[in-house]
Amino acid sequence: MIKLAFYGKGGIGKSTAASNVSVALAQKGLKVMQIGCDPKADSTIFLHGGERIPTVLDLVRKGESFDLEDMVRVGYNGVVCVEAGGPVPGLGCAGRGIIAALEELEKKGAYEKYQPDVVIYDVLGDVVCGGFAAPIREGYASKVLIVTSGEKMALYAANNINSAVKNFADRSYAKVRGIVMNRRNVEGEEEKVRAFAESAGLDIVADIPRSDDIIRCEDKGMTVIEGEPDCQAAKCFLKLAQTLMQEDNDD
Predict the structure, then answer these.
(1) Taking 80 as the threshold, does the pLDDT of residue 98 lie above it?
(2) Which residue of 111, 165, 219, 246 is 20 to 30 Å from 64, comparing CA positions?
(3) Across the beta sheet with 204-208, what order do the strands follow?
(4) Is the dihedral of CA 117, 123, 235, 27 positive or negative?
(5) pLDDT tens digits for range 8-65
(6) pLDDT band for position 250 (50/70/90)?
(7) Is the model's pLDDT at 96 over the cut of 80?
(8) Are β-strands 118-124 and 143-148 bridged in parallel, bridged antiparallel, or unpaired?
(9) What percent of the chain has pLDDT over 70?
(10) What positions carry a catalytic annotation?
(11) Read out DSSP for the chain?
């Protein structure tokens, strides 16, 4: 099974990358589950025509019993979608909420019922506290992709994420597979990202161009692979998905 976590600074394009890779892998015949681990609960929005789905924490807060089907929605190309959600603003801890949501999925037998070939976690990486690090350290994900541009704060977050993963290196937890460079066309961007990757000993596994095609498709509530499958950005995501699938077959 491919167990992958996308991490990065808020707004850097994690959900764009995760959703496009999910769709690409589903097109190749794999059963894909995408789990949004960001309090904004918008990881899977481009798999549902721009509509949000109920979050696990919203269901838990109601204090009523609920079934697995209440937590899960099937999106474009059959991708199974879950959103962990976040706390009431000003109350509670978003990181603890992620842990609670992942535990709820296990308790209700999500993995047994849907039997995914691929599970993708889309995780906020601004603060890599215990909760946000759960996919890394609890055995949910085996590989981490760090999404970054050449912007200073994006690279700062990328460095923190890489350091967090290294802290668990001796426990057979997830490892960083590499960097997804999501270009913002800032000055010296490629040089900055490549310098960071080299200093961290990481590969750049995908180079996603700044693309109006992505923006237009997301305005319509869809991934670029669905809306503009022949554009350069879509081809880059398809190539990344192929690489990940081939690596899993080789392991």
Answers:
(1) yes
(2) 111
(3) 73-74, 80-83, 32-37, 118-124, 2-8, 143-148, 175-182, 204-208
(4) positive
(5) 999 999 999 999 999 999 999 999 999 999 888 999 999 999 999 999 988 988 878 8
(6) confident
(7) no
(8) unpaired
(9) 100
(10) 9, 14, 40, 126
(11) -EEEEEEESTTSSHHHHHHHHHHHHHHTT--EEEEEESTT--TTGGGTTT----BHHHHHHTTS---HHHH-EE-GGG-EEEE---PPTTSS-HHHHHHHHHHHHHHTTHHHHH--SEEEEEEE-S---TTTTHHHHSSS-SEEEEEE-SSHHHHHHHHHHHHHHHTTGGGT--EEEEEEEE----TTHHHHHHHHHHHHT--EEEEEPP-HHHHHHHHTTS-HHHH-TTSHHHHHHHHHHHHHHHHHHH-
pLDDT at residue 126 above 90? no
Of the candidates 24, 25, 1, which has an alpha carbon nearest to the alpha carbon of residue 116? 1
Structure tokens at 176: 């960083």
Which pLDDT band holds residue 141 (cuts at 50, 70, 90)? very high
Predicted confidence at residue 131, as pLDDT, reads 77
> What's the token pair of residue 203?
């590969």
To 10 degrees, what angle do helices 232-250 and 14-27 make? 70
Contacts of 241 (CB under 8 A, 6+ apart): 20, 21, 24, 25, 28
**Nearest by Cα to 162 from 175, 173, 171:** 175
